[in-house]
Amino acid sequence: MASADEKNFDDINVTPMVDLYLVLLLIFIIMTTAGVKGVKVDLPRASKSAAADLGAPKLQAITISNEGKIALNTIPVTLAELEDRLAKHKATQPNFPVVVRGDRQTQYQGIMDVLDVLGRLQIDKIGLATQPAK
């Protein structure tokens, strides 16, 4: 029988080996990204009055005041006018984002009416604007 000082080492501690592999992987990643260089080209210059990205859909902002008045991109509208204008915009750009901005004092029903219009038009890119917490 073996004494307490003579231990049988059946297991291999793989922790140092894993650490070594991770360090080697890190060195490999750093060396390969440092070695990749792009081809240098002289890029063309745009004019100072370059056009906006015409391919990106234009964001539509709907604002609801605390009196319940609705504005689409700062233009006052009724719910029916809002639905008509958004339907016309959806016909030209079917996938555009909408941001709903409601005053802190706005009745919840006003916001729900606007969201109901957006749901009927099947507009699904909707953001609700808030202020960050202080």
Topology:
Elements: H1 15-35, E1 60-64, E2 70-72, E3 75-77, H2 79-92, E4 98-102, H3 108-120, E5 126-128
Parallel strand pairs: 1-4, 4-5
Antiparallel strand pairs: 1-2, 2-3
Question: How would you describe this structure to a colleague?
Answer:
The chain has 134 residues and is of the alpha/beta class. The protein has a domain at 60-128: Nucleotidyltransferase, domain 5, CATH 3.30.420.270. It is built from three helices and five strands. The protein has helices at 15-35, 79-92, 108-120, and strands at residues 60-64, 70-72, 75-77, 98-102, 126-128. It has a five-stranded mixed sheet with strand order 3-2-1-4-5. Strand 2 and strand 3 form a beta hairpin. Helix 2 packs parallel to helix 3 (108-120). The radius of gyration is 30 Å and the shape is elongated. The model has no long low-confidence stretch (mean pLDDT 77).
Question: TL;DR?
Answer:
By secondary structure, this protein is an alpha/beta fold. The chain is built from 3 helices and 5 strands.
**What is the level 1 CATH name of the domain at 60-128?**
Alpha Beta
Largest sheet: 5 strands, mixed
Question: At the third CATH level, what is the topology name of the domain at 60-128?
Answer: Nucleotidyltransferase, domain 5
Quote the average pLDDT.
77
Shape, principal axes of CA atoms: elongated
Percentage of residues assigned to helices: 25-40%
Q: Output the structural class.
A: alpha/beta
Question: Any key phrases for this structure?
Answer:
single chain; 134 residues; alpha/beta; 5-stranded mixed sheet; 5 strands; elongated
